[in-house]
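Changelog excerpt

This revision adds worked examples to the README so contributors can see how folded entries look when concatenated. The first example is reproduced verbatim below.
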Amino acid sequence: QVQLVESGGGLVQAGDSLRLSCVASGRTFDLYAMGWFRQGPGKEKEFVATARNGGSTIVADSVKGRFTISRDGAKDTVYLQMTSLKPEDTAVYYCAAIQYGAGAYNYWGQGTQVTVSS
């Protein structure tokens, strides 16, 4: 089992920056990737970014150029640096992890609220 704990959410103004962190614990040695999803009010959960073993990253087009994902393997931690935040970025942000061989993200954090005021 893997446990994921997010931190760093909060209330900010449009244009501000915020960094989310997610620490993994437990059976972390066979994690293939760690990433972030978000779910805004009245919206479906959507992919934001992922960081794979080996260093490659993928960022959703909706946040590309504003959000950056990074991963510290030694600390089993993934970060989401968010800049130029917009009210439409308001959402609960979830950390997720996928093991080698799993067909989909199979571990999820509890989520952290990010609210961007205009």
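The second example, added in the same revision:
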Amino acid sequence: QVQIAESGGGLAQPGGSLRVSCAANRRIVGSTSMAWYRQAPGKQRDLVAIITEDGTTNYTDSVKGRFAISRDNAKNTVYLQMNSLKPEDTAVYYCNFDMGRPNHNYWGRGIQVTVSS
């Protein structure tokens, strides 16, 4: 059973930076898209960034130019570098590994990111 878990995050000041990581507990075999979602209090969970197997990336408009998603396939890990953070970036961040097959879509438990002075 594949399990994935986030790490990093925490508290940052407006304009600051944080990096979150998400690693799988075993080698991922097969084409896998990796993504970051976030959910602020009282709001739905929204896609932040996604990176496909071939390295193609896509971002929600509010983070373009500030966030960067990357992956290390050898380590089964996806990263989200967050720069120029804003208070509205405060949320629980979740990672997702999607292998495109039934029962092969995995979620982490989430990690808190708080941007506040």
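Reviewer comment on example two: The chain has a mean pLDDT of 95. The CA atoms of residues 58 and 64 lie 9 Å apart.
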